[in-house]
Amino acid sequence: MPDTILIIDDEAAIRDSLAGILVDEGFAPLTAGSADEGMQLLDEKDIRLVLLDIWMPGMDGLEALKLIKQRFPLLPVIMISGHGTIETAVQATRSGAFDFIEKPLSYDKTILSIKKGLQLAHLERENQLLRESGPAPISITGNSSLIVHMRQQIERVAPTDAWVLIRGGHGTGKELVAQTIHRHSRRSRQLMVAVNCAAIPEELIESELFGHVKGAFTGATENKKGKFDQADGSTLFLDEIGDMSLKSQAKVLRILQEQRFERVGGSKTIEVDVRVLAATNKNLEEEIERGRFRADLFYRLNVVPIMVPDLVDRRDDIPLLVADFVGQFSRKGIGHKRFSTGAIDLLQRHAWPGNVRELRNLVERLVIMTATEEITDKDVALFLGNVPLLQPPVSPMESRYRDFDYKEARRRFEADYLLAKLEENDGNISKTAEQIGMERSHLHKKVKALGIVVK
Ligand SMILES: Nc1ncnc2c1ncn2[C@@H]1O[C@H](COP(=O)(O)OP(=O)(O)OP(=O)(O)O)[C@@H](O)[C@H]1O
Ligand SMILES: [Mg+2]
């Protein structure tokens, strides 16, 4: 379908010649002899661009422009005038005109301007659609209560500007958590900037984070922007923050307090708007005791701590994770495989010191190396090698309630269940009651009667 373009001009000769040009170029022109007539057509037709004369009897072009921009903010409007002065051009652009062309109209200039206007409007419409469709759903796989709880924390903290400390073992998904928080924040239109503090030599980390000025040290041949500069308006992910030098920690703390810093060797103070997400697998409390991590930085960062659980503590997520990875590898064309129940059982008995990353790598190796379509426990055993296995995951029935009579078992189950649900909701009775479909007052009584205390 050709794009419909509206020409609003009081001079019939101009309307006709412009309409002719537009038809030749494959557009569908519509014409109006006055602003009022034009406004009416805008209401009725699906118009993609407007060519608008400035001097017209009745409502003039500048007034019409304001009205059009109020009602159709994304519609590109090109102003045409026989009496072009810089002032009117400036005024028109301020009111939202896309371009300004002068009579007598140059054929090429007019067509070029129209094409650019249509292109820009197309991009803006696409952007708006993307914004309206909202962020992608959180893709942290898992249904275990630990993961459900973590996902709730992420949803709560993501839209705020709070700094977050993400803690957890190797390969548990700390970076995935950081990415997810960023994607669900108001900063998501810009890319998150990540710095691995452990991978940068201590003497370079300050210049990496804050930038440096030419001549600040040997090798500093140019002024260089740091990661904090690059992340202005966005999120900075400080990975392995426990490996940062005390000097850098002091600077980071200052940014946290004042949102400003100086480049290495520079005296100018630079202000930025950066949200920091930090991650570590170190025991920072221990690092503080040994004098290797600043306590004040820890407390400022730890306002919103997120603990990423070890895989071994959420073994019920393993089937889902395996299915997820099998799907990913199959989409990548690596191969489509199935895991037998026995294979999954065995995977649930491995201790996973390398957590989800280890599981993902193992699934990938198995998918590539197993010749048959089904991957069995024998295949898994071969790849796991001779490692000690854990007991199979226990069912609650076996572990906690077996030795009691019905009444006591029920009392214990109620207490376990309500405590877990209350903890998920940070001890909030109303929220918990709503989540589990129980009267608030009833829940309150139960909590008292069972002597439940949320830590
Ligand atoms: N819950 C999850 N669902 C799906 N994939 C996950 C999940 N957790 C982790 N992964 C995947 O596991 C791998 C390791 O995750 P990630 O790099 O985020 O971990 P990490 O904690 O930062 O690891 P390291 O300590 O080594 O830096 C990635 O491929 C990630 O996509
Ligand atoms: Mg990581």
TL;DR of this structure?
The chain is of the alpha/beta class and 455 residues long.
Number of helices: 20
Query: What structural class results from the helix and strand content?
Result: alpha/beta
Sequence of strands across the biggest β-sheet: 2-1-3-4-5
Oligomerization category of the chains in this entry: single chain
- Indicate the proportion of strand residues: 5-15%
CATH homology superfamily name of the largest domain = P-loop containing nucleotide triphosphate hydrolases
DSSP, total strands: 14
Question: What is the level-2 CATH architecture name of the largest domain?
Answer: 3-Layer(aba) Sandwich
What spatial form do the alpha-carbon principal axes imply?
elongated
Number of domains: 4
- Measured as a percent range, the helix fraction is 40-55%
What is the CATH fold-level name of the largest domain?
Rossmann fold
Q: Round the mean pLDDT to the nearest integer and report it.
A: 88
* Backbone CA Rg: 32 Å
Low-confidence stretches: none
Supply the CATH class of the largest domain: Alpha Beta
Terminal-residue CA separation:
64 Å
Largest sheet: 5 strands, parallel
Q: Catalogue the ligands.
A: adenosine-5'-triphosphate, magnesium ion
